[in-house]
Amino acid sequence: MTEIGMIDKGGYGIREMVAGQRKRYLPLPDYEGSTPTETMFNIYGQAIDENYSKLLMERSDLPLEQVIWLDRVQKKEPVAATHVAVLRKAGLIEGRKPNYFVSSHVANVTGTRAEYTRNKGLDDQYYKKLILQHIQNFKSVSGSDIRTLLRDKLPDSLSVAQKQVKIKNLLSALRTHGLDGQKIATHGTGKGARWEISKL
Length: 200
Fold this sequence. Notes:
mainly alpha; 9 helices; elongated
């Protein structure tokens, strides 16, 4: 079987598949899901993150190792700190561990500015003002109301759990420090607790 080319004894077939996926601007093959007794080689037939594919189209000069690291970023897989530093220095990614995403420069070049802003999110002041305005509109709101208000406005790069933590931190900051002369406070406990405006 080796003689007729059905066994890839030297590993060149895998190299060719990696090169082929890169040329097609698709995610690179990987071994995710492998176990000590079983090797799983995954080949992706479609884009996971369109920004990654557009970046490869624009930057055909990228070294293969950077393409591999970016591939891990787009698959939301762990990336070594040294690799992150290289990608940051090259202006290719932004974000904080583990939520990295392509940079504003890349988004501008590839025409994915809206996706970039959804990944990066907005300034905390914006979210705080939104919370205050929501409470002013309805005098008293539940924590569930506030989570519903912000859920789709927080960065796409955050997981559901991370969005919950972000909302909790925003509420804590408004309760402790306030904004524009206003603080918020809770009345009641448990599921019946309500957020209301209180003066500084």
